[in-house]
Amino acid sequence: MQILLRKIRETESPFSIEENGVRCFGKFWRSGKHRAEIEGKIEGELPLSCDRCGEEYVEHVEEPFHVEIVDRPLKVDESLDVIECLDGIVDFDAICKSEIASIQSEYHLCPGCRDKDEFEIEF
Ligand SMILES: [Zn+2]
Fold first, then answer.
1. Within a 10 A sphere around the Cβ of 89, how many other Cβ atoms?
2. Cβ of 22: how many Cβ atoms within 10 Å?
3. What is the per-residue pLDDT across 38-56, written as a single tens digit (0 to 9) for each?
4. Domain range list for the chain
5. Contact 14, 3 (CB under 8 A)
6. Nearest to residue 101, comparing CAs of 39, 29, 20?
7. Ligand 1 centre and the CA of 121: distance in Å?
8. If DSSP codes are grouped into helix, strand and coil, which group holds residue 83?
9. Cα 101 to ligand 1 centroid, rounded to whole Å
10. Which domain of life is it from (predicted)?
11. pLDDT tens for residues 105-118?
């Protein structure tokens, strides 16, 4: 799903994208002449890899996110949650994919290693 930033209205509109059983949904609106915001949530069974043993596993994830999109060059002091789209096209699919990728790149332990962790803390 792609929408021109200048066509995004100031009133909130809903969106929902689903890919491989993972849903990305929420709302978006325009918050300035060159600025739009997306508030959404990633929800679904996400393939993750354990940072301790390297095991691949699938876990149910519910992760909210909030990004701003601007169609002008970013200022140096702008936060990491601001996405630059100089062609003025807000690409929801790409934004959802990058949100999913950032969840996957966080530190994860598989259920087995998590159990071991608790064991070590107790003793
Ligand atoms: Zn593990």
1. 13
2. 18
3. 999 999 999 999 999 999 9
4. 2-46+60-107
5. no
6. 20
7. 17
8. strand
9. 19
10. Bacteria
11. 999 999 999 988 66
